[in-house]
Amino acid sequence: MALKLSVIGCGYLGATHAACMSSLGFEVIGIDTDANKVAMLNRGELPFYEPGLDSLLASEMTTGRLSFSTEFSDAADADVHFICVGTPQSKDGLAADLTYVKSSVTAIAPHLKAGALVVGKSTVPVGTAHMLREQLAQSAPQADLAWNPEFLREGFAVEDTLRPNRLVVGVVNDRAEAILKDVYKPIIDLGTPWIRADLPTAELVKVAANSFLATKISFINAMAEICEAAGGDVTVLAKAIGYDPRIGSRFLQAGIGFGGGCLPKDIRAFMARAQELGANQALEFLREIDAINLRARQRVIDVVRADLSEDLTQYKIAVLGATFKPDSDDVRDSPALDIAVQLNAAGAKVVVHDPKGIEPARKRFPDLDYRESVLDAVKDVDVILHLTEWKEYRELDPYAIGTLVKSKFLIDGRNMLDREKWRQAGWRVHALGRTD
Ligand code: UDX
Q1: DSSP code per residue over 199-260
Q2: What's the 263 CA to ligand 1 centre distance in angstroms?
Q3: In the beta sheet, which residues pair with residue 89?
Q4: Which residue, among 387, 414, 422, 436, has the nearest Cα to 227 in the 3D structure?
């Protein structure tokens, strides 16, 4: 008999996981406490933007295998329950807020059938899985718990779920591993590496991976600062060091740094947990990684002030990009939006464009002036800031844009635009980490 699955928490991670597991042939029920979200998903509509997931969800809904509900009791006949709820940064510190993880395990416990396996996918501080397993041993001794971190990137969520570069499972016994092998058989059959770990190691793999990625980005942004001070070009430097296979060229794109719902909060939560464990020295370097990252945002503001004026009240600025990266509508901890907000707070007239992120950005920061069209956004501006590298910005015609602005001044915060093309069209271009 095929396993029945439930997915608890239907945000980016959960909705993707539910649709992908349905596409592998499983009967899947997604549970979320947000009735609006559940209603949308049941209509086959995605509450956020993720390339390829909208069509996958719509087609899976027609199979009859996939459904969504607000009632935990509707998941009672599932064999495996994936916990996919968020673990945001807590309001009063660096640590992760485990409220949703704890409440979802508490809510599902009374409905777990004999032999059911609860599988955490959320990113949690090391030790959480052990604590939840103990909790389940009291409230639902007929069930077991495992941890299976996900590594999906927004913009590539479906690809990363169905063709991940590894599967990591934290288990306490062979039975839990066997169940997860059943679930992931089609993916394992593609040759995907399978790593069995204990619970703490499985939890740590995720935060270690994100810490490494954050470190790589902040490393290259630190080199960008040095290049600016010494008259070098960080893009050439990144290319040159990237040819060394021990270093690798990916995640060496210098610019305004990392944001989103994962990297920033994960490194902070990791530091907070290390402190609790008495191992804070081991992760002191992450404080510097965070500081370099936030400095990258500030450097753009410094360039604007140095070029225009300390007093920005007379200036109009176009910000191209609001999301934390392209091909997403996610504006959580977005460096682009942060810069826009800071410049706005400093008195500049800031006009923001984004292909997908305007509505989510407006919800968070209603005071900014948002425009649906780039041509509208750049009208009469003193400077254009290119802050999220959407493809459509690379295709802009600098001659046409040049006829609309007040001053042909461009700051490329992502080092992705063709500087020569813009310069030939009469633009002054400042790119982060490049001095010429
Ligand atoms: C990240 C991890 O990549 C993923 O494995 C994990 O599961 C969740 O967190 P995501 O948040 O979707 O995924 O974004 P990612 O593609 O990693 O980019 C993070 C941020 O770093 C973005 O703001 C991006 O613009 C920035 N970045 C990335 C750089 O500034 N330079 C780079 O070279 C790469």
Answers
A1: HHHHHHHHHHHHHHHHHHHHHHHHHHHHHHHHT-BHHHHHHHHHTSTTT-STT---SS---S
A2: 7
A3: 96
A4: 436
For 295-431, CATH gives: 3.40.50.720
* Residue 6, Cβ density class (10 Å: 0-12 exposed, 13-18 middle, ≥19 buried): buried
Is 295-431 in the same CATH topology as 207-289? no
The C-alpha atoms of residue 118 and residue 127 are separated, in whole angstroms, by 16
What is the pTM assigned to this prediction? 0.96
Mean pLDDT, to the nearest integer, of 74-89?
Answer: 96
**Looking at ligand 1, which atom is closest to the CA of residue 262?**
9
262 an active-site residue?
yes
152 lines ligand 1 (CB under 6 A): yes
* Residue 1: per-residue pLDDT: 72
- Domain range list for the chain: 4-197, 207-289, 295-431
Q: Which of 48, 165, 219, 258 has most ligand 1 atoms within 8 Å of its beta carbon, as the pocket-test mutant?
A: 258
Task: Give per-residue pLDDT as tens, 338-357.
Answer: 999 999 999 999 999 999 99
Within 8 A by CB and 6+ apart from 286, the residues are 211, 214, 215, 267, 268, 270, 271
- Give the CATH superfamily of 207-289: N-(1-d-carboxylethyl)-l-norvaline Dehydrogenase; domain 2 (1.10.1040.10)
Give the tokens for residue 232.
């070098």
Answer yes or no: CATH 3.40.640.10 is held by domain 4-197.
Answer: no
What is the rounded distance in angstroms from the CA atom of residue 187 to the CA atom of residue 164? Answer: 8
Decide if pLDDT at 251 tops 90: yes
Q: Whose alpha carbon is nearest atom 30 of ligand 1?
A: 257
